[in-house]
Amino acid sequence: MKSLAILAVVLTAVALTGCQTATGRTAGTFVDDSSTTAAVKSKLVAERPASLTSVGVETVNGVVHLTGVVETPEQRMRAEQLAWDARGVRQVVNNIQVQQPPVAAAPTTIIATSPAPPKRSVVGTVSSVDPNRGQVTVTTGADQLLFQLPAGVVRDIRPGDQITLDISVRPTR
Q1: The pLDDT of residue 107
Q2: How far is it, in rounded angstroms, from Cα 155 to Cα 152?
Q3: How far is 129 from 126, CA to CA, in rounded Å?
Q4: HSE-up of 117 (CA within 13 Å, CB side)?
Q5: Residues of the chain whose pLDDT is less than 70?
Q6: How much is the pLDDT for 15?
Q7: Contact between residue 150 and residue 134 where contact means Cβ atoms under 8 Å apart
Q8: How many CA atoms lie within 13 A of 151 on its CB side?
Q9: Strand, coil or helix: 93
Q10: 131-156 burial by CB neighbour count: b if 16+ within 10 A, else e?
Q11: What is the pLDDT, as a whole number, of residue 5?
């Protein structure tokens, strides 16, 4: 009789805490996340003419994680837009990489012009966005860059976005 009472207490405790997976998600959350992942994938597959079928999608607690490689920055942004349009999405983490175009051979004809200012490309990941101040913080390796941008630009930037900046330096003499 005592073991029956202990069994009843254990079953009640399990029923009250709910069934959870090893990740801490309930069965209902797991089903919701699976539905969200399926909705995002179907939107990516239906997108024409861009083929976004190579984009990986995983959803955890309503947060959609996008991974993979696409050909253009526009495809990367479009995949994120499609993910935001899916039902059940609370946040989108866009880790899609843009394929670097092949390096073209240097032209053989040299035209004498004034020396071009040195150019430098910086690639970084957006670590924070403050739309009220119009500020975006970009992390590039060990460095952090703070940019003041127009509100219309900041509105479309999300943490985790990859940004490429082409910087030309013109020394003053």
Answers
A1: 58
A2: 5
A3: 7
A4: 10
A5: 1-25, 49-51, 102-121, 166-173
A6: 54
A7: yes
A8: 2
A9: strand
A10: eeebebbbeeeeeeeeeeeeeeebee
A11: 60
Task: Report pLDDT for 16.
Answer: 46
- 29/14 Cα distance (integer angstroms): 17
- pLDDT tens per residue, range 103-147: 665 555 555 555 555 666 678 888 888 888 888 888 877 778 887
For helices 27-46 and 73-85, give the axis angle rounded to 10 degrees.
130
The residue assigned the tokens 């899916």 is: 86
Q: Which of 104, 96, 46 is nearest to 74 (CA)?
A: 96
- Name the β-bridge partners of 124: 163
CATH entry 1.10.10.10 includes domain 119-168: no
Instruction: List, in sequence order, every beta strand (DSSP E) within 15-161.
Output: 56-60, 63-67, 69-70, 91-94, 97-98, 119-130, 135-140, 143-148
Q: How far is 12 from 6, CA to CA, in rounded Å?
A: 10
Q: For the chain, how are helix, strand and coil distributed in percent, rounded to 5?
A: 30, 30, 40
